[in-house]
């Protein structure tokens, strides 16, 4: 069983294969509000970020979508050509007119919106500038230009590296899963939205991206050259002659199809181990489709907005019926938790490892007049038995330390196989 990527702690920053002392980092940095994103994101490009959980059936005039990674609350001012006369608008106008230096109004408006979202109390608040939307619409593709990292935002607003794509430029750097992102190319991102941060990281092939991260009490500066990234969310390993290990790193477009494809060429008569460790989420429908491969009929997940209930059901007349063990850890989140919860509640598999992160909220995207969007939290996901995931997580059936995962997985599968054979 392959281990997840871990990078050793370092007192020096890796710069293109060399090291550089952190005291050589330029001391002056800009804040995210000082950056004009229209100049950062000026054409359709993909980017690195944690994937969103969406359901195409919910797209309406307001472009409602289910997203599980980052959330937002609304603001009462308009942006774009038509602006309301408000104290916020008056304050922005006064700053522009009184400032000794030229200030871009769009930059101030974005900062104001993000400030309102933060003050709203929605811990997953996010705002998508018009220029950055194409990045997020393309982020679930299997191939993109970037450095190969995916980001998530914690309840406290800290942005961390949630995943590093194998074979990507970032995989050869000193970055590690769990690192807190402090600066991108000299711009502070502490307290910034995911959308703004991802826009800053966006790069063309060959472009240099400087990331300053914090790990424990150390700061590490990594310089990475952007390249073509092939997103691979599924990897299958034949653990024994009759047991298959299925590692799902994230739920991007085509993940469920890829899971089905790799299983067709594997021998898993004695069982399947599904490893969801460090899987921070992704497209909701992909997670539902993976669950449906193993769960024949019935509820996978549901939620209710006002009086309207949405239920995702499995309708597979010929599901895979071998024993299943699902591995989770503290970084398993969002749609990955939904998958683990479905296996658990439907008595379709045994969940082992650590209690998961606890991210299970429903959001909708609301369009603003200038083409930008707000992401609003509207409901909580429920497992098949009605359990809430948000802030609770999925508690494993069997708590297992990382060092024991491989052996325990096989032992549990053996026990399940023995139990099934006696039925």
UniProtKB/TrEMBL annotation:
Gene Ontology annotations of biological process type: proteolysis; signal transduction
UniProt record similarity statement: Belongs to the peptidase S41A family.
The protein's name in its UniProt record: PDZ domain-containing protein
Annotated region (Disordered), positions in chain: 1-30
A Gene Ontology molecular function term of the record: serine-type peptidase activity
A Pfam match: Peptidase_S41
Alphabetized InterPro entries for the sequence: ClpP/crotonase-like_dom_sf, PDZ, PDZ_6, PDZ_sf, Peptidase_S41A, Tail-specific_protease
Organism the protein comes from: Actinobacteria bacterium BACL2 MAG-120802-bin41
Keywords, alphabetical: Hydrolase, Protease, Serine protease
Protein biosynthesis among keywords: no
One cellular component (GO) term of this entry: outer membrane-bounded periplasmic space
Gene3D superfamilies per UniProt: 2-enoyl-CoA Hydratase, Chain A, domain 1, 2.30.42.10, 3.30.750.44
The UniProt record lists the keyword Cell membrane: no
Domain PDZ, residue spans: 132-202
């Amino acid at each position: 069983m392959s281990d997840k990527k871990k990078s050793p702690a370092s007192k020096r920053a890796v710069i293109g294969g060399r090291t550089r002392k952190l005291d050589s980092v330029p001391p002056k940095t800009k804040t995210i509000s000082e950056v004009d994103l229209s100049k950062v994101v000026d054409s359709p490009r993909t980017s690195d970020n944690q994937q969103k959980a969406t359901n195409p059936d919910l797209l309406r005039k307001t472009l409602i979508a289910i997203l599980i990674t980052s959330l937002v609350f609304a603001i009462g001012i308009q942006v774009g050509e038509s602006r309301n006369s408000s104290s916020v608008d008056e304050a922005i106008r006064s700053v522009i007119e009184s400032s000794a230096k030229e200030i871009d109004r769009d930059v101030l408006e974005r900062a104001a919106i993000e400030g309102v979202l933060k003050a709203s109390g929605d811990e997953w608040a996010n705002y998508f500038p018009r220029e950055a939307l194409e990045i997020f619409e393309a982020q679930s593709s299997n191939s993109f230009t970037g450095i190969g990292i995916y980001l998530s935002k914690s309840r406290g607003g800290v942005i961390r590296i949630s995943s590093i794509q194998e074979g990507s430029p970032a995989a050869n750097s000193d970055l590690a899963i769990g690192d807190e992102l402090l600066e991108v190319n000299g711009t502070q991102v502490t307290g910034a939205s995911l959308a703004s941060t991802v826009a800053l990281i966006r790069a063309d092939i060959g472009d240099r991206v400087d990331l300053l991260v914090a790990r424990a009490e150390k700061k590490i500066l990594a310089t990475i050259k952007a390249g073509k990234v092939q997103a691979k969310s599924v990897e299958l390993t034949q653990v024994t002659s009759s047991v298959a290990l299925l590692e799902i790193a994230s739920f991007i477009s085509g993940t469920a199809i890829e899971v089905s494809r790799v299983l067709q060429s594997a021998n898993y008569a004695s069982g399947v181990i599904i490893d969801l460790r460090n899987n921070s989420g992704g497209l909701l429908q992909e997670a539902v489709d993976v669950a449906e491969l193993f769960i024949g009929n019935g509820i996978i997940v549901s939620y209710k907005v006002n009086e309207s209930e949405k239920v995702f059901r499995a309708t597979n007349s010929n599901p895979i019926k071998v024993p299943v063990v699902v591995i989770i850890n503290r970084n398993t989140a969002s749609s990955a938790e939904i998958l683990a919860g479905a296996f658990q509640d439907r008595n379709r598999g045994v969940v082992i490892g650590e209690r998961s992160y606890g991210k299970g909220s429903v959001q909708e995207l609301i369009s603003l007049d200038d083409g930008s969007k707000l992401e609003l939290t509207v409901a909580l996901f429920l497992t098949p038995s009605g359990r809430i995931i948000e802030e609770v997580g999925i508690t494993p059936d069997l708590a297992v330390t990382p060092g024991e995962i491989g052996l325990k997985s096989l032992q549990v599968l053996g026990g399940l196989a023995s139990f099934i054979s006696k039925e």
